[in-house]
Amino acid sequence: MHHKASSEIFRRAKELRLRLTPAESVLWERIRANRLNNLHFRRQHPVYKYILDFYCHQYQFGIELDGEIHDQSDQKLRDLAREEDLRGLGIHILRFKNHFVMQETEEVLRLILMEVESIKKQCPPIP
């Protein structure tokens, strides 16, 4: 589940859980405690050398929320490499801009459910 994440990554994830961004807080309130179709998400979840904003182990599905820094070309390249690494671990990733989460929360939830349905068709859930 953690794909050999280091103790440093676990420490950083714990710190990040204490200071969610506003967009992370909005989404977390809607998906925490199995509130979204009984899907269990973790927040700031360590995987390998990364920390996923939200992660559903049952479907190996991560959600990343992106602030303005992710619009910079060098960050876009790092994001692509990160997604490639995570896909190599069998993890599906869905990205949203922070402002989209804040302005279109219901649409974000609908897109998350659509992605889960797509993942279900590809492979069975992990118990």
Automatic annotation (TrEMBL):
Superkingdom: Bacteria
Xref: SUPFAM superfamilies: Restriction endonuclease-like
Annotated keywords: Endonuclease, Hydrolase, Nuclease
One Gene Ontology term of the molecular function aspect: endonuclease activity
Pfam families according to UniProt: DUF559 (PF04480)
Domain DUF559 positions: 11-116
InterPro entries to which the protein is assigned, alphabetical: DUF559, Endonuclease_DUF559_bact, Restrct_endonuc-II-like
Protein name: Very-short-patch-repair endonuclease
